[in-house]
């Protein structure tokens, strides 16, 4: 029985897949699909089922012509999951719980589309226990994703994203990069350059409470879970306003950064809505 937090959504890819395996996406391989590619002679493609009588009568060389079609293909899909310590933050819910929800929904949706799925988890390094190769079977991936909420370690950065690119296939794929993206912009840019062969969907997990629950007046302690360091600050309204402004500015900067790579980000705060993910693809990734 599937966990209740799985929320399937619909997606499509804005390119033609180069895979030789039959699937549900437009492809470039010749086969028995429905996308007309052109004509050739029966000698070059001996398939009488595709004979084009009209073109055969028009052929000045009197060769029998057959229609060529591209078959529909699969595409590789990846969930690249940030399991660093900043994902331990708890607002109304732990970020790691939302991560679990999104990653499981991606895996199940990929399975429903008959595509192949791979899971890649990382903190300061890629985590072997959370790396699964491309497969049609997502049951093991769902089992690994279910253990995300057991992760509680602090002091672990997200630098391992730079080790993820070599784990992707050479064929263009769809990469769901799921993170709170609380890492240096230079690292994000480096990772996006490494992922340039693929279509990246940045899913940004933010909790408004990260900056809206700050004290209006008095002492407050801020903990950086990725370094384990804390800092005591005397808050007042002006300091609180600066934190809120900084978060809003970072959101705009993230949007600009990802748009420069033609990868519009999808922000999630509080809970994952499958319909919003479907709308994302309808808006940004129509063929």
CATH C-level name of the largest domain? Alpha Beta
How many strands? 12
Question: Rg to the nearest angstrom?
Answer: 24 Å
The chain-level mean pLDDT equals 80
Net shape: elongated
Largest beta-sheet details = 6 strands, mixed
Relative helix content:
25-40%
Low-confidence stretches: 17-30
Q: DSSP strand (E) fraction?
A: 25-35%
- Whole-number tally of structural domains: 2
What name is given to the CATH topology of the largest domain? Rossmann fold
How many alpha or pi helices? 7
- Main structural class: alpha/beta
Order of helices and strands: EEEHEEHEEHEHEHEEHEH
Cα distance spanning the termini: 34 Å
Spatial strand arrangement across the major sheet = 7-6-5-8-9-12
Q: What is the CATH-assigned architecture of the largest domain?
A: 3-Layer(aba) Sandwich
